[in-house]
Amino acid sequence: MKLYTYFRSSASYRVRIALNLKGIQYDTESVHLLKSGGQQNSVSYRALSPLGLVPCLETDAGGHLTQSLAIIEYLEEVYPDAPLLPVSPGDRARVRGIAQTISCDIHPLNNLRVLNFLTGKFGLSVEDKEGWYSHWLTEGLLAIERMLIDDPRTGRFCHGNTPGLADCCLIPQVFNARRFNCSLERMPTIQRICLACEELISFHAASPVNQPDAEPENN
Amino acid sequence: MKLYTYFRSSASYRVRIALNLKGIQYDTESVHLLKSGGQQNSVSYRALSPLGLVPCLETDAGGHLTQSLAIIEYLEEVYPDAPLLPVSPGDRARVRGIAQTISCDIHPLNNLRVLNFLTGKFGLSVEDKEGWYSHWLTEGLLAIERMLIDDPRTGRFCHGNTPGLADCCLIPQVFNARRFNCSLERMPTIQRICLACEELISFHAASPVNQPDAEPENN
Fold it and tell me: Chain B contact for A176, CB < 8 A?
């Protein structure tokens, strides 16, 4: 099993956490999103991932899976140990709802290709770009905070007392928030869950700074 | 079971198709995204859907589920008849990957709150907004076309010869493409699958124009 990944890609980060939580061994191949016009745009990579996004998982059977949440659901089905989703359909929908709020309504607005479009095609300033980033991130994370704080199913982690799919998505998003100096002040539950996750080696080992292709922050 | 919906919301449209394909009876409550500053922003609706997005499904048990794909996965688990996902994990990942390419990498960039931000906060022109819309839609749908045309698992529908989750996402996105006059010329497989879907009453009945809250196009 091989993961096409980029250390700073938060969608890749989600899958790395999931692989670690399940104790699955995997190889990595770095797809550098900035070098040589973006290695994700090469013909060979686009043959695996037509939209040129990371991550992409090469399965042991030789298939290539795209989309981080589709990959994690695949891992959940093939490696059911250390489940990342709860048992009842209503609870599963809750966890998927939190994960998708991040993966559909926060992250896609703030990824590299979109930010480049704003500053490139539209000629917006760095300040405008940062305002855009902060707006969607803060609005989205405040909604997540409400989904967490208002629901008794929230435990030490997003759902109960074992880490799962929602945590796999939350931690990378918070990593980005910190990187862009977005305040988490009004999000005490998110902060508390992050602390709990950061104590776990599975999360720690998946962090961008601990990847083989990691670079210093100012790169 | 009650669906909070808006006729033109393509995420709501996905869930309406899924409910119809499974033959599930449901009530609807319209959440008008434009009237009175957006009914999705009311305190009462935000209590159900913290980010103020449609759809939201009220289950028979009284729970409230958000995120269209989380809702459809819930329906799939509770009402397994007329399955919307194939059986093998690899095939399920493929279908979810197509669905998420639409729900994560096309749709969130082009929904109402984002377009309003571009023309409002950034003061971009209608032309710029339409260029943005068309860019992400075309790039995304061309990737989907490749995922479909290059894979022998594509049949009459996105996966095999029965409609499923990927079709539930594709048809609403194509509806939007046509509404915004985006060309589908380079997407013969998508066009062919749309024709197959349009022959089915489940898709037809879910269409924006056939909703109780539908309005004329120029509204």
Answer: no
